[in-house]
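ESCALATION

Customer reports they have been waiting on this structure for their group meeting. Please prioritize. Original submission:
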Amino acid sequence: MSERLDPRDRAGRQPVELVEQTEPAGRAERAGPFEPNEPAGPFDQGEPDELDEMDEMDEPFERDEMAELLKLVERIEPVERAGVTRPGATTRTRVKEVTPGAVRDRRDDLATEEPLEIRIQAGESRRTVAITMRTPGHDFELAAGFLYGEGMVTPGGIDRIGYCTDEDVTPEARYNIVTVRLHGELPELPGLDRHFMTSSACGICGTASLDALHDRCSPLPLQAGLRVAPETLYGLPRRLRESQGVFGKTGGLHAAGLFTPDGELVTLREDVGRHNAVDKLVGWALMGEGLPLGGHILMVSGRSSYEIMQKALTAGLPIVCSVSAPSSLAVDLAREFGMTLVGFLREERFNIYAGAHRIEA
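Update from on-call: job pushed to the front of the queue and completed.
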């Protein structure tokens, strides 16, 4: 994987603080998924003390050394300390497996789905702006990416992100609430007049139409020098699948991968929701001062929906590929804003629905 957008490579800058002043009682060890071959930047939500120690080291870890260190603090399974269980990326269950002539009990691993409440705060003012069903892991990136995609924050607008520390919230629930502290005042947006409720399947329902999207987004530049060979696109689904660590265990997660025009995987995020995976990826770039993402390719599992195209547009991503079909509104958005949309990317075939000038075909 490329390290060009790794936040640690930006002259030691850490634009967003990721630690609340007080930690939740009974704080458990980190239980998020381990991303193979990818060093964890300061925006992965490990333990605050662990993050501070890694950021203050004089000499950076080599990739293999970092991976070995993270294996000590990351867990796929939920962990329990002081009676508080923090949800992990997978959940164990028992199933009856039926095959011709046999039925047997066995253990199975499911992709965890838990609610995440996203709050924004400026000074003493605080609002809940979304409750989304997600797979635990990279929660801070998810919150930041969601807020950025909805136009509620701008690059440099986030002061601090942390889990809930309210005493009136049970310890079990604190890992399902993220507070994003902003510089300045709370934004005055119509979307804040009601609580968003999102599912892991459809994203935000009833958000901005194409007309409203024009108010904050402009069509992407033509980028005459950006052209991708079909052979490069052919390999993206395989590279995406091979890098999905949690999917290999559960078979139940979507992924969003960021690629270079040469097909090199920069980073990848997984979630039960396609749109959540994209939010995590955009949040990673936002918090590492890596936006906009022009000159990159977004590859998603499943289909390309309007929500995914909207999030890609706000991040400046010119090319979006998926293994399945796009929706009609996704195609409309791509054509109206100058994006390249590729669907049914499987083996050695694909359809171009918009922006064919960026594909060497």
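Sent to customer with the following note: The radius of gyration is 20 Å.
Escalation resolved.
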